């Protein structure tokens, strides 16, 4: 069966539209940009994505993205073993590390509690969090979740499940705009938020 060349373009646009923050117009612009470039541009992009998907897995300790069993952060014994920062996704770790203001370890939940979208506590890395706290030497847990209703609900749930442990639980200072996503916050604002964190009540 023959296919019109425009169908190939529609397939690319459809694929780009599945990415977060990419609408119809942006997806179409990206599609036409790739098609207007030398084929090596598109092929290099495809190879980079393929190689990453084939070689990157989750760190068995914190569930950050890693190419080995442990991510570079968990493999770094010089970091502060008393601090554990809980984040929703690996991208937020990148933002924290770029800010250069935090030297503890992380735990990635891979989402936040959101019953409307069917995301329940059992869908997140919360059981693994309790196990890490049980077996670790952490003294402070930093809740670095997005400042929205889902992040707040998740923070409250985490405080509840960690209540049996002798821990100081803190949250980012409210310099971070309410309703924003941490991955889009500039590093200076994030530095202030981590440096002036407060007890989570």
Structural summary, described in words:
Helix 4 links the parallel strand 3 and strand 4. The protein has seven helices and seven strands. It folds into two domains: 51 residues, Helicase, Ruva Protein, domain 3; 138 residues, Dna Topoisomerase Vi A Subunit, Chain: A, domain 2 (3-Layer(aba) Sandwich). The longest helix has 17 residues. The protein has 201 residues and is α/β, with parallel strands linked by helices. The N and C termini lie far apart (63 Å).
Please report the total strand number as a whole number: 7
CATH class of the largest domain: Alpha Beta
Major sheet size, sense and barrel closure: 5 strands, mixed
Uncertain spans, ≥5 residues at pLDDT below 50? Answer: none
Question: Element order, helices and strands?
Answer: HHHEEEHEHEHEHE
Q: What's the number of domains?
A: 2
What is the CA-atom radius of gyration, in angstroms?
A: 20 Å
């Amino acid at each position: 069966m023959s296919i019109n060349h425009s169908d190939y373009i529609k397939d690319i646009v459809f694929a780009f539209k599945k990415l977060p923050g990419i609408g119809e117009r942006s997806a179409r612009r990206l599609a036409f940009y790739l098609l207007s470039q030398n084929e090596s541009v598109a092929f290099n992009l495809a190879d980079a994505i393929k190689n990453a998907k084939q070689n990157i897995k989750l760190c068995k300790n914190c569930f950050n993205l890693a190419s080995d069993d442990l991510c570079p952060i968990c493999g770094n014994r010089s970091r502060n073993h008393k601090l554990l920062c809980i984040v929703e996704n690996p991208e937020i770790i990148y933002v924290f590390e770029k800010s250069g203001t935090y030297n503890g370890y992380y735990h990635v939940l891979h989402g936040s509690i959101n019953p409307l979208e069917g995301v329940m506590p059992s869908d997140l890395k919360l059981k693994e969090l309790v196990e890490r706290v049980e077996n670790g030497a952490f003294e402070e847990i930093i809740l670095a979740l997005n400042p929205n209703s889902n992040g707040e609900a998740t923070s409250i749930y985490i405080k509840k499940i960690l209540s049996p442990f002798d821990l100081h639980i803190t949250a980012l200072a409210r310099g971070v705009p309410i309703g924003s996503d941490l991955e889009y916050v500039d590093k200076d604002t994030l530095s202030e938020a981590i440096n002036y964190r407060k007890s989570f009540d």
